[in-house]
C-alpha cells in the first residue's frame, strides 16, 4: 500500500479584498464512470426535522457536505488551507477601515443549474430568508452580525454589519449563505425533503427510502462558473449503516472512496499496509469532541459538579484506549493548531485528581455520588463513540463521586432532544464552519447558540467576542480569545475531550484524494478523478 500524507500550511491571518481565480467546470474526467463514495452519515427527514438539506436549516457536517457541492456561496474555502476566495463572486472585500461594510461583485453570466440568472437580488433574498426563518438548528447565528443587505444593480451586493467582524468572509463561505432561487425556496417556509437546487459544481438527486437517503448522485453542472475545477462528471454517494459495511464495500470494489466515519481499527489496519489496493490518506483536521451541559438541569446546575467532572476525566486514557494516534487530548474548545488556542482546562485542573474533585463538591455542599446519565449518538460520529462513553462512565464511577449511566440514541432523535433540553449531559462533535478560533467559541457561547444552551455570560457575549472579531490580524485577537477560554474552563458549560485527525481511504486508481477533505472536513468531490490502477 502506498500511504499518502498531506500536510497543510498553517492558518494565516485575515482578510484583504481578493479576486476570483479562473476555475470552472469546463474540464474533468471523460471516463463516464461515476466515482462512488461511501459514508456512514445518515440523512433523515423526520416530523421534527422535515427539511434536513435546506441551507437555512442544515447545520451538521454531513448535510453541509451535500450543500457545498450544490449550492454556491459568494466565497469558498480554497484547496488546502488559507483565506476564503471568491466563488460566485468575482471579487469581495471590506470597503471601510472598521470591518463593518463588505461588498461583493458577482461573476458575469452566473446561472442556476435550471438556467435562470443569478442576481444580486437572489443573494439578498437568500441571506434575508435564512435570517427571517431563524431555524431551530441555530445555523442562522453565523449571520447574526449582518444588519442589512443592499444591492446595486444586478451584480453588486453590500453587507452592512452591526459590529466589526473580520471573520465575515469565512461566514459567506458556509452553506447558510448559499444562494438559492426564490422559485424553489419560499421566503417564509423551509423546503421539506431532499430536493436541492443551486448554482454549484454539481446538481443533486437523492434515492430515498423510508425518508432516509440511501444513495445520492452528484452530476457535474455545465452552467457552473466559480473557483473550483471539477475533475469528474459524476459522483455517487452511498450511505452505510456501519463502518464495517462500508469497509466490505470498498474491499469488494462496490465503492471507490471511504470518507467519514471509518473505525479506529480500520484506520490502523490500512495505516499498517493491510491492503495493497486501498490507500489511506491522513491529513490535519480540526474535528473536536466534547461534553455539553444543560446548565439549567438540576443535576448539573451547580458548576461544582461540572468542575468535578473536568477534574476527574482522564482524556489521555480515552484517547489511548479508543483512538490511539488518531487523536490527541484537548484542553480547550479551540484546537491546538489554531491561532488563539490556550490550554485553559489543563491550566486550571492539571492532571486528573479524585481528591481535588471531591474537594470541589464538598465546598459546594454536595455529598454522596452525583447521579447522571451521559447521552451519546450511536450513528453520527462513528462506531467508537460507545466505547468512548463506556470509558468516561468507568472513570467517573471509579472516583466514587458519581453514579453514571450511559445511553445511546440515533442522531435523528438525539439532536432534536438535545435542542429541547431533554439531556442534562451529552456528547457532541464539532467540525468547524471555518478554520478560526472564533468558530470554536461563538457557536457555543453567543446568543442563539448552536446547542440551544441556557448558559450565558454577558462579558463573553457583549465584550470579548466583539473584541476578538475586530482584529483582522488574528494574533491580535489572542488576548480576548484566551479570556473566553479561561472563563469556559471556570464555568464548564462545555467540556473538551479530544482533537482528531481526518482520514480518507480510496482504491488506488482514484486521484485527488489528498484534497478530498479540507481542514474543516469539507468534502470536495470535485477533486476526485479516475486514473490508472497501480
From TrEMBL:
One of its GO terms (molecular function) is peptide transmembrane transporter activity. Its main location: other. One of its GO terms (biological process) is peptide transport. The keyword Transmembrane does not apply. InterPro entries: Peptide/Ni-bd (IPR030678), SBP_5 (IPR039424), SBP_5_dom (IPR000914). It is found in: Cell envelope. SUPFAM superfamilies: Periplasmic binding protein-like II. Residues 1-20 form the signal peptide. Residues 84-449 form the Solute-binding protein family domain. Transmembrane segments: none annotated. Gene3D superfamilies: Dipeptide-binding Protein, Domain 1 (3.90.76.10), Dipeptide-binding Protein, Domain 3 (3.10.105.10), Periplasmic binding protein-like II (3.40.190.10). Pfam families: SBP_bac_5. Keywords: Signal, Transport. One of its GO terms (cellular component) is cell envelope. Belongs to the bacterial solute-binding protein 5 family. This is Peptide-binding protein.
